[in-house]
Design brief:
Layout (H helix, E strand, L loop, with lengths): L1 E4 L12 E3 L2 H8 L5 E3 L2 H9 L1 H22 L3 E6 L6 E6 L1 H10 L9 E2 L4 E3 L1 E10 L2 E11 L5
Parallel strand pairs: 4-9
Antiparallel strand pairs: 1-2, 1-3, 5-7, 6-8, 8-9
Length: 151
């Protein structure tokens, strides 16, 4: 099934791209969600007319993503959590926790942009991948320290 993307989807392509997907995925997800249009003659003509505007928007988004990536590249984030004697955490550090910590530094990202295969469950440093934009990613270091109890 051939479709025209109405928005950028990292696993498929950018807005305006003509893609081929399995019929079920296109019919049951992309079309009802409004993320794509059928690649028929009329829609292809409209996409061709909008190509210049889409290119300008892509360039603008790319510059913003590169700017954010440059800002957070190599950033060290310290998160304090309750931990036991064996350096295992009571709970875990998730991408939402990392996103909240970045928000405290005035860096607004969606938690889906933080690629964390498994939640962090031990103390120490972990390198975490951050997808800032379409094909733009960087790495940050998350340091998990034990929460110091006030006496």
């Amino acid at each position: 099934m051939e479709l025209i993307l109405k928005e950028t989807i990292s696993s498929l392509g950018r807005e305006g791209d003509v893609i081929t997907v399995k019929a079920g995925y296109g019919r049951n997800y992309l079309l009802p969600q409004g993320k794509a249009l059928l690649a028929n003659r009329e829609n292809l003509a409209i996409a061709e007319q909008n190509k210049a505007a889409i290119a300008v928007r892509h360039e603008k988004e790319q510059k913003i993503a590169e700017k954010i990536a440059k800002r957070i590249s190599g950033l060290d984030i310290v998160i304090e959590q309750l931990a036991g004697d064996d350096e295992r955490l009571f709970g875990s550090v998730t991408n939402a926790d990392i996103c909240d910590k970045l928000a405290e530094l005035n860096i607004k990202l969606d938690k889906k942009q933080i690629v964390l295969p498994d939640p962090i469950k031990t103390l120490g440093e972990t390198k975490v991948q951050v997808k800032v934009g379409y094909q733009v990613s960087t790495e940050i270091t998350v340091k998990v320290n034990p929460l110091q109890k006030e006496e």
